[in-house]
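Translate structure to sequence.
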């Protein structure tokens, strides 16, 4: 059992679902470890950005391990333990940018994980599906909620109701992913995104992500006001604002500290 986690000196973390013999499917033990890692990313102030991917060349994540997860008996009271084992696609509030590097099959829970990320790169052999209806269940962990918000309604309903897969080119055309690249360039492309983001002011990046995500549930007027308040807060209190201004005047690269 392995969820590989590494954070480098530049504040870029990498999460690798490492179970290629099971197409990187997640059993309950893997879900628990993945939850622990997401909380580490959220709470570690030195982490600025994270890349999530799967081990091997065939699969990003095939979702829940059907043999272990589906049909497992759970106490009914667990339905109201909504803060138990937080996951990125299960309501964990993580304002640090998450980049998905999709290296093959992205199915079920892998898709719902993808939908909770911010920037998505896929190899040419990637395939995407929410096939839960073929197993008698619904696309949980946000599948029925995020997909219809992120791509066109008709395309989302086609995927949700048929359970059929789409290829990487179609996913890019529908706006599900940002870029399709050869498999050999997948991680380097994801890293370029991460390095660019990690060089920016961490507090401003997190504030930007939160504002953009909350905009879906706010009126434009409320969003504009919240944007104004956060900008004022940063300008009055963040030393990174002073550093950004000085670097611009001195024509040098800024050294942001997330303060």
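Result:
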């Amino acid at each position: 059992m392995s969820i590989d986690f590494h954070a480098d000196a530049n504040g870029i973390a990498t999460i690798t679902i490492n179970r290629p013999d099971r197409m990187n499917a997640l059993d309950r033990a893997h879900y628990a470890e993945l939850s622990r890692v997401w909380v580490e990313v959220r709470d570690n102030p030195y982490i600025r950005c994270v890349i999530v991917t799967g081990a091997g060349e065939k699969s990003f994540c095939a979702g829940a391990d059907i043999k272990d997860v589906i049909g497992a008996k759970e106490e009914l009271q667990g339905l109201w333990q909504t803060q138990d084992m937080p996951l990125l696609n299960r309501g964990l509030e993580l304002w640090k940018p998450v980049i998905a590097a999709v290296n093959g099959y992205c199915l079920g829970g892998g898709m719902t994980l993808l939908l909770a990320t911010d920037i998505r790169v896929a190899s040419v052999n990637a395939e995407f599906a929410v096939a839960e209806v073929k197993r008698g269940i619904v696309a949980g962990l946000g599948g029925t909620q995020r997909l219809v918000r992120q791509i066109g309604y008709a395309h989302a309903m086609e995927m949700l109701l048929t359970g059929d897969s789409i290829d990487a080119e179609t996913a890019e055309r529908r706006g599900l992913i940002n870029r399709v690249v050869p498999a050999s360039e997948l991680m380097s492309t994801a890293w370029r995104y991460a390095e660019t983001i990690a060089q920016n002011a961490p507090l401003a990046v997190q504030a930007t992500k939160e504002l953009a995500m909350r905009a879906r549930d706010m009126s434009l007027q409320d969003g504009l006001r919240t944007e104004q308040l956060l900008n004022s807060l940063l300008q009055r209190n963040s030393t990174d604002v002073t550093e950004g201004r000085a670097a611009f005047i001195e024509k040098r690269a800024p050294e942001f500290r997330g303060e």
